[in-house]
Amino acid sequence: MSMDLYxxxxxxxxxxxxxxxxxxxxxxxxxDKNPLCGDQVGIGVKLDENKVVxxxxxxxxxxxxxxxxSILTEKAKGMxxxxxxxxxxxxxxxxxxxxxxxxxLKCALLPLTVLQAGIYKKxxxxxx
Amino acid sequence: MTLDIHRIRQDFPILDQKIHGNTLVYxxxxxxxxxxxxxxxAITEYYxxxxxxxxxxxxxxxxxxxxxxxxxRQKIQRFIGAKKSQEIVFVRNTTEAINLVAxxxxxxxxxxxxxxxxxxxxxxxxMVPWQILAQDKGASLRYLPISPEGELIVDxxxxxxxxxxxxxxxxxxxxxxxTINPIKEIVNKAHSIGAKVLVDGAQSVPHMPVDVQELNxxxxxxxxxxxxxxxxxxxxxxxxxxxxxxxxxxxGGDMIRDVTWxxxxxxxxxxxxxxxxxxxxxxxxxxxxxxxxxxxxMEQVLAYEHELAKYAINQLEDIEGLTIYGPMDKPRGGLIxxxxxxxxxxxxxxxxDQQGIAIRAGHHCxxxxxxxxxxxxxxRASFYIYTTKDEINQLCDSILLAKKVFHL
Lengths: 128, 408
Ligand SMILES: Cc1ncc(COP(=O)(O)O)c(C=O)c1O
Fold this sequence. Notes:
The structure holds two protein chains of two kinds. Chain A is an alpha+beta fold. Helix content of chain A is 47%, strand content 20%. Chain A has a single domain (3-125), classed as Alpha-Beta Complex (Sufe protein. Chain: A), CATH 3.90.1010. A three-stranded antiparallel sheet of chain A has the order 1-2-3, covered by helices on one side. The N and C termini of chain A lie far apart (53 Å). In chain B, strand 5 (115-119), helix 5 (128-137) and strand 6 form a beta-alpha-beta unit. The longest helix of chain B has 20 residues, at 60-79. At the A-B interface, loops of A face helix 12 of B. Bound molecules: pyridoxal-5'-phosphate (PLP).
């Protein structure tokens, strides 16, 4: 029997999420959901010299989407905005370390989509 | 006579396969049912022996195809107890049947200030077309509420049905709660104030006897794919006098009597509503599905599903942390929506999938209802004539396994 999808890393992040909470005056903030299943994620980011100094999230949904968010927030710390923009589904898959079906991949990618949409929203508001 | 489930299963080739190394347990019948050999063969036979366009040719193949197509209509007429076969209009699915009514009858009869009454347990396909129509016309939508047990509060009709109510659109069986609604009583109340009634039969027609003359509903919509038939074919039933009055839905070939450069006159019922070449193969397939269900008997089908639902509730109730939605001690449709503390429905569905068990997770196209139930999503196991009690046992075992995977 293969329960690879629920390897310990994912369960651990789901049951004990990192960086859950709210940020005061975030530089980047965005919230969205997967209309198909209702998974929700909101992410706030604090920047200093274009680098992530703090990041927090709130979310509701399946283990894959919530663990993926928790892991993303851990990895994002210290990254530049350009590095965040360059992240792809391959990075998420590598971090999660499990094979994902197309439907479950959508769950896993929700936080990255939200984070990058937040960055683009900010860039549109204040074009540099 | 009870159903011989073992024999029935042999008619469904899809059931004989392994998923992730385990024998398929298909418990997603409320989404779509599987198809028996006879239906699959009917479609193959049409394409390999008498494929031709209908109502147009004088050649043999076209005559054969027309005959089979119209014979299917009569089978469906008898299946739902309609007075005439002219009252059976072929569409793509339940959704299209409801949209057809909204865009023809609705456009004609709904005016600013009118009310359309729905219920809190409607599928999106029996909400959104009415939202579009109401916004367009300046009409408003009202909702008949449900009780905490997941049943309609029928008494509230006395308040909600007013002289402004033009239409009541209501499901006969909830695809989330399994509740079976007292349609006949509700139709009577609606008619007494002059409102028409559309019944969403997507979940009821496949699983219980439905007789439109007994219900006295004005419209009935259902889908072939949920009742052993192919995808892409559905039915709109409407009373003849209503269909006569309704403007056409789409213009084109087949639906006209006379066409001049300037204008056209409409064909007789039901062809007035079937513009263009229809889905001939799947109409014939649906006719064969109706034959299959008739041979079993819809009373037997309903009785067996009541039994399965009761058995499943008894088994599932014992699982700690599991919440079942819908009526618990009344006969209900063969589907159970549930949530499990600490595991999201998607994760339950993924773990069950690894065991070869197919269920559905999400809001089941009833987002406001799911939220009212206090859930963001639910898991749903739904049964049909080939579901066994042993499969329900496997469902329970796999839910226990899911709890183990999640250290619960
Ligand atoms: C109660 C109910 N109404 C309507 C529908 C829509 O059916 P279809 O998608 O075949 O149009 C469904 C099925 O999904 C349903 O369960």
